[in-house]
Amino acid sequence: MSSLVALPILIPLVAAALMLVVRNLFAQRAISFVALLSSLATATAVLVDVWNTGDIAVSRLGGWPGSFAITLVSDGLSSVLVVVALVVTTTVLLFAVGQQTPDEHSPYYHPVYMALVAGISQAFLAGDLFNLFVAFEVLLMASYVLLTLEGNRAQIRSGTTYVVLNIIESVVLVMAVGLIFAATGTVSFAELPERIAALPDGVRMGLHLLLLVAFGIKAAVFPLFSWLPDSYPTAPSSASAVFAGLLTKVGVYCLIRVQTLLFPGELSNVVMIVGVSTMAIGVLGAISQHDMKRILSFHIISQIGYMVFGLGIGGAVAIAATIFYLIHHIPVKTSLFLVEGIIERNTGSSSLDDVSGLARKSPLLAVLFLIPAMSLAGFPPLSGFLAKFALVRGGLSAEQYIGVGVAIVVSLLTLVSMVKIWVGAFWGEVAPTSLINSVGVLRQHRSMATATAILVGFTLVIAVAAGPLYEFASRASDQLLNIERYISAVRSAS
Amino acid sequence: MSIWAFTLIAVLFAVGSYLLMERSLTRVALGVGVIGNGVNVLIIASGSDAGEAPIIGREGVLADPLPQALVLTAIVIGFALLTFLMTLAWRNWTITGNDEVEDDVEDRMITRRAEQTAKLGDEPHPEDVQT
After folding, report:
1. Chain B contacts of A144, Cβ < 8 Å?
2. pLDDT digits (tens, 9 = 90+) for A273-302
3. Rounded to an integer, what distance in angstroms lies between the CA atom of residue A338 and that of residue A244?
4. In terms of DSSP bridges, do strands A57-61 and A70-74 run parallel, antiparallel, or are they unpaired?
5. Which residue of chain A has the CA closest to B42?
6. Are residues B93 and B123 in the same domain?
7. For the packed helices A153-184 and A201-219, what is the interaxial angle rounded to 10 degrees?
8. Which ipTM score applies to this complex?
9. B110 shares its domain with B96
10. Which residue range forms the structural domain that includes residue B95?
11. Which of A130, A148, A171 minimises the CB distance to B39?
């Protein structure tokens, strides 16, 4: 099984290289889908294996022994995230193909998209800090290109802020890697926990804070989020859907690794306070906006706050809840951006001033919006309710009443701003100024609608299969908290 | 780590941070280059003192080859980033005629609204004066 771990990275990379030679659009689309589906198949095989055996799958590139090789580690958390990421990227690609926009017709769109997928898989699977840094650079570089592919004024303006901010993040991260190497003499996740624990308190805290800042910028947590609502809304819809669903979650994943593996349980109060303020400030930003994409972008920040809060609480229950939240949030957020993309494609605007009466025009689109929107706000019986319920339970058992109170108020405010989009865009008379054509909205863009429907269906599956999935999240969280298992799995890998 | 390597890193970080805070994209790109090199020197210095070679079989103390391999990767990545930033600056220049980073459009709208409300406190709204 361990030989399959590297394939979700290698297949997209090979496909990207191939597509730099094959410039035909239809051939490129075919290669992309074959690459994504075969990666998904291998990732699912690894997930099933990890699920059944409860083992940690380790792949050593180059065949060097244990902690010397570049290791790829697929434990419960990593394997499930790779599968979710591949499902999301496949459906978004289907959406992008159906969109018929100039950016997807560029010969560079598909290779860059594959590089993005490879970077995301690599970040989830990386078994050492430097490999993680390289994965970040791969996915960031691809995201820079996707964000500015059309090269118009708005994209260049927000793309510049995004690129510079993320370069600063990379500098902080590589500095942290350098200093950690100087202090401990290793970058491998399997060797670091023991050596970090032996460091003096001050050094340990400094290194920890550096990593938290680097991954905090990436995850867009409270004082470091300002780049996100600025840059995501100008990206093409398909790109912003992937960014919204996955890129910030890579940051959250790294924060989970830092808090459970490298610095277990340290500075958890700081993390918790950051999480609670991220929730509150994100949702307040969302309420004051008047453009669908910007509202949804602020909600990314607010939802990240929930996950970071769960991480800050610590302990098996709260971390299992965080993992479940992560799995549920990726498809929900992506499908909201896809619905917004369909609206923008049809009306030419994402401002609530220009769009109205969509529920009458296309009831199916309204349903496709309503399900993930209610899930985001945490309505039973959708997946968001279960994720929030698990998190609140974790918070109550740890007696974090203030944080739990804020979480509940924030979910009410989330509902308020989702209702704002609903009332503004879906209810009311069909706006005379809007460019909706008389043919049904969805009939015209069948593959965009199919892609969105698949993702919304996926969120429903998460809600239906919540029992087994939550059990898996609990097991993944036990694995995370049992550092010895991780270390021995990497060292004994053959 | 020798005091000279330390001083060099400090100077590179200071210069880089200063340049990063400029509005002109070309200077930001220069800042990225300078601060990137500061980090590279930091990693090299974290591996060993100057003058030791990472060659097995050589007399004397050996340097750790790993930081040098890491820095090689970091240099390549930094080069690619710098190139991308320069093309962005170029594109920005062809569109707007300068290479300065513009303000966020929504930000400007919100600032204008705030200024107008502040004015409304003691004098009539500018649009009301015109009508």
Report:
1. 84
2. 999 999 999 999 888 888 888 888 898 999
3. 10
4. antiparallel
5. A178
6. no
7. 160
8. 0.81
9. no
10. 3-100
11. A171
